[in-house]
Specification:
Strands 1, 2, 3, 4, 5, 6, 7, 8, 9 and 16 form a 10-stranded antiparallel sheet that branches. Strands 17, 18, 19, 20, 21, 30, 31 and 32 form an 8-stranded mixed sheet that branches. The chain has about 700 residues and is of the alpha/beta class. Helices cover about 25% and strands about 30% of the residues. The N terminus is likely disordered. The relative contact order is 0.12. The radius of gyration is 25 Å and the shape is globular. Helix 5 packs parallel to helix 6, helix 10 packs across helix 14 and helix 14 packs across helix 15.
Length: about 700
């Protein structure tokens, strides 16, 4: 998966910065990262934090002082098979700023090696697996690219000391902190007072974290939490408190946009219109929006605007149904939902969210207190196991799996997503119960199963292209698909798969006959398999100049660590086969829905990859409009531009029929009929301008 924590954790540059004075050169090939056995071992009595979720413990971070006065950190984490093993040593100058940082080890995004130092002339130098540079140290503070998350505690102390004025950062950026309410939690030594704080400048939006009663870093809470050992049980309470505080912030933003003045009638005239049902572009059209719905569609110049109508000249622009992200995990980040609207997303399908968070989003959106796309939610069910999905309903039997399905239905959710540690024998009875209750069934393919077996057991849909590739993987890969083998197997063997073999053609045909839907999420695998640290992945490069510097820097990754004598070119060939599978599935008649499993910013790149796979421009855009609307049962009110339908529509600059990338150039978003200015949306969501 992509670096899922970086957007929510201020301790790491969010998931990526070019130097202000000059772009850094491509790094030279580096030696292999330090192996786990080469990393430091924490001594007895080292400070101990744990990484946990409601699914259990996922890792540890220790900190201790070295004899020379430097501070050491060691992080070890396994998150559903993705492994991070890093250590870090920080040396401080007289003013308590780090003047030496050395990180070793690896993450699922590649080599974690990072070095920072300040020379005698006061020039700072840094080098990571993705960038290197130098600049006057002056009064700035180096913002590490990676390293153990707890190592950012010294930065938090500096932000607190700086107050409202904040601190300038290297390579770029500026950050500050605001401290809010204090609450009491229980811990191993009794009640403890902690304070909610928000850091600005390291992400698209204020990032929540927790301080102790002396304003020192205490931890952070979320779907994944980092807290001192013994305080793990406090994570859900802290998350609820910070979610409530964030909801208050976004409520004010929502009220500003969802005003009566923005719901007056709108006429878009002389515009190129995408007909998602017909799969074609219609030139010189006029569309009238009134009372939240499409009131009329006609030839350009033929509609008369009622009194008080806002008229938009559509020449040089394209009008499309609002975009769907069919793999957008909602919950835990209200600001990201606002950004989704800013980038043209009016609808989503969440393939795995927690019930309480989903219900909160539905309620606040309906009340006009949250600016967010509209959509449907599935809940994850997984076997209780150390490799269980975080946020899942965990079960230990077929009976418990059926009970979980009933709980999901009772909560009003749309679907059930089974995960990789499920016992294959439980899928059929649980899927049968889901279908009986009218729920959609989809998910990862459990270890030990192949995709056709899951479909025959009741899957309506398969998520992620790597699980489609499992049909052609060796049995030892299939048997370990709940570990990193679900990526490493396709990365190793994918390049040699004959996509046109009789066995694969039979596979495609059965999926088509069963009308099985495929959610490829190619943009998850593109940076992991193709990146070498020398360039920003195409999914993020259009946003590089308008995202916060720390975010842009974090997007640049070294790629999944190579293994077994494989080269990056081998990985790229395997990714090309993944793209090829999507094209063959489509040509066989298998429905494709576009999803990102990311911020949502990656959505247009996903469509560009579908075009590489052989889909036409209109076919690619259908995967993010009418196809997911039909999948979720919402096509009667969204997914196309037709009289009587909800006005979930986007107006973009440029001719999308010629360049699908023009979908990034959002001019106006119509959400439930509200007319929302693209520039204002981008500013509110943390983007400084129009992406390229």
């Amino acid at each position: 998966m992509r670096r899922p924590l970086l957007a929510a954790i201020l301790l790491v540059a969010a998931p990526a910065a070019l130097l202000a004075h000059k772009a850094a050169p491509a790094p030279a090939p580096a030696p292999a990262p330090a192996a786990k056995e080469q990393l430091m071992v924490p001594p007895a009595g080292a400070r101990h934090y744990t990484i946990s979720s409601v699914a259990g413990k996922h890792g540890d971070i220790w900190s201790w002082s070295l004899p020379d006065g430097q501070t050491a950190y060691r992080m070890s984490m396994t998150l559903r098979g993705w492994v991070t093993e890093t250590d870090e040593v920080i040396g401080f100058g007289p003013d308590k700023r780090p003047t030496r940082v050395a990180v070793r080890g690896f993450t699922d995004s590649g080599d974690a090696t990072e070095n920072f130092s300040v020379d005698a002339a006061g020039i700072a130098h840094w080098k990571t697996a993705v960038d290197e540079g130098s600049a006057p140290f002056a009064g700035k503070r180096y913002n590490s690219y990676g390293g153990p998350w707890l190592a950012g505690e010294a930065d938090i102390a500096a932000f607190v000391a700086a107050g409202e004025k904040g601190i300038d950062l290297l390579p770029q950026g500026h950050a500050s902190i605001s401290i809010g309410k204090a609450v009491t939690i229980d811990g191993p030594s009794g009640p403890k007072t902690v304070k909610l704080a928000f850091v600005q400048g390291l992400g698209f939006a204020p990032t929540p974290m927790w301080l102790d009663d002396q304003n020192r870093f205490f931890g952070f809470a979320g779907v994944i939490s980092l807290l001192p050992e013994g305080y793990e049980a406090a994570g859900p309470k802290l998350k609820d408190i910070q979610d409530e505080a964030t909801a208050a912030m976004v409520r004010d933003v929502a009220h500003r946009f969802l005003s009566p003045d923005n719901r007056t009638p709108t006429l878009i005239d002389h515009v190129l219109l995408f007909d998602s049902v017909g799969g074609r572009y219609l030139p010189d059209q006029a569309v009238l929006i009134a009372d939240g719905k499409v009131a009329a569609v006609a030839k350009g110049g033929s509609l008369k605007a009622p009194a008080g109508t806002t008229v938009i000249d559509g020449r040089g622009k394209t009008l499309s149904p609002g975009l769907w992200d069919a793999h957008r995990h909602i919950g835990g980040d209200d600001w990201n939902l606002l950004q989704n609207v800013a980038t043209g997303m009016t609808n989503y399908r969440s393939p795995g969210s927690m019930i309480d968070e989903s219900l909160s989003i539905f309620k606040r959106r309906a009340a006009g207190d949250l600016l967010a796309p509209d959509g449907k939610v599935s809940v994850i069910v997984d076997r209780k196991d150390p490799l269980a999905a975080q946020g899942a309903l965990t079960v230990t039997s077929a009976e418990e799996a059926i009970a979980a399905v009933r709980k999901i239905k009772a909560a009003g959710m749309w679907g059930v997503k089974f995960y990789t540690s499920m016992n294959p024998a439980w899928i059929a009875p649980a899927a049968a119960e889901a279908h009986k209750l009218g729920l959609h069934v989809h998910g990862h393919i459990p270890a030990g199963m192949r995709p056709l077996e899951a479909v025959r057991a009741g899957y309506d849909e398969i998520t992620h292209i790597n699980f489609i590739m499992m049909q052609a993987m060796p049995q030892e890969v299939v048997d370990k698909a709940n570990t990193a083998a679900r990526l490493e197997g396709p990365a190793k063997y994918g390049k040699d798969v004959d996509l046109d073999s009789p066995e694969m053609k039979t596979f495609y045909a059965e999926l088509a006959q069963r009308k099985t839907i495929i959610d490829p999420t190619l943009t998850v695998w593109e940076p992991l398999m193709t990146s070498d640290g020398s360039a920003l992945s195409p999914e993020y490069s259009p946003f590089a100049d308008v995202a916060p510097p720390a975010v842009t820097r974090g997007w640049k990754i070294a790629g999944y660590p190579l293994f077994g004598g494989l080269t990056r070119d081998d990985f790229r060939k395997s990714f090309a086969k993944m793209i090829g599978v999507v094209g063959r599935l489509h040509r066989a008649g298998v429905p494709i829905v576009a999803g990102t499993d990311g911020y949502g910013l990656e959505l247009v790149r996903e469509l560009e990859l579908y075009q590489q796979a052989g889909l036409t421009n209109p076919e690619a855009l259908q995967t993010a409009t009418i196809v997911p609307a039909r999948m979720t049962g919402m096509a009667d009110r969204t997914g196309s531009i037709a009289v009587g339908k909800t006005a979930d529509i986007i107006l973009v600059n440029g001719d999308v029929s010629k360049t699908i990338g023009a979908l990034r150039q959002v001019h106006t978003v119509f959400l439930d009929g509200y007319r929302l200015d693209g520039d204002a949306l981008r500013k509110a969501s943390g983007l400084s301008g129009m992406p390229k």
